[in-house]
Specification:
By secondary structure, the protein is an alpha+beta fold. The chain is about 15% helix and about 40% strand. The protein is globular and about 50 Å long.
């Protein structure tokens, strides 16, 4: 069986969530769950200042683009390409080019699952990334995103922070 890769699909601006919903519905209707594994509209938290108040809002990382983890074949290509709002795959001509491991890493999308030895309630140490040398108690685990949420003290108050499994280790 062919290997699934992440592909970038170009959409009309503002149609990203609609395209995601349409592809998800098509996957369900045509029973393509084994071929189109995941559809994502990458989001990021952005702090905005409105009327003197700090407000964290989610914004699209790549307006006009949707990421799809799928096995590329004529069927899946046709389904995605002919979804309302999709203008095409990113790549030369009509040939989609999968994203490399290096391109996926900054997006926080792991391609292989990391097995961890900690669980909710355990104390872990952050060994890499922005929160390196921080210690926290695991509040929540998301195995799909391969992340753990811990509380860290920031400006004198507890703040939940999402950390990738690869960036933490269990404390004894």
């Amino acid at each position: 069986m062919a290997e699934a890769n992440w592909y970038v699909v170009h959409t009309y601006s503002g149609y990203e969530n609609k395209v995601k919903a349409n592809i998800d519905k098509t996957i369900e209707n045509r029973h393509l769950e084994d071929e189109i594994l995941e559809v994502r509209v990458p989001m990021q938290d952005v702090v905005e200042m409105k009327n003197g108040a700090r407000k964290t809002v989610q914004k699209k990382m790549f307006p006009g683009y949707v990421l799809i983890n799928m096995i590329m074949n004529d069927d899946t290509w046709y389904v995605v390409r002919n979804t309302r709002g999709v203008t095409g795959f990113v790549g030369p001509g009509s040939k989609p080019v999968p994203l490399t491991e290096e391109e996926m890493r900054p997006l926080g999308i792991q391609t292989e699952n990391i097995v961890v030895s900690f669980k909710e309630g355990d104390t872990i140490a952050v060994i890499a990334g922005v929160w390196k040398d921080t210690v926290g108690v695991v509040q929540r685990m998301d195995y799909n995103k391969q992340t753990a949420t811990i509380n860290v003290e920031l400006f004198g108050r507890e703040t939940p922070v999402e950390i990738g499994f690869a960036e933490v280790s269990k404390m004894n």
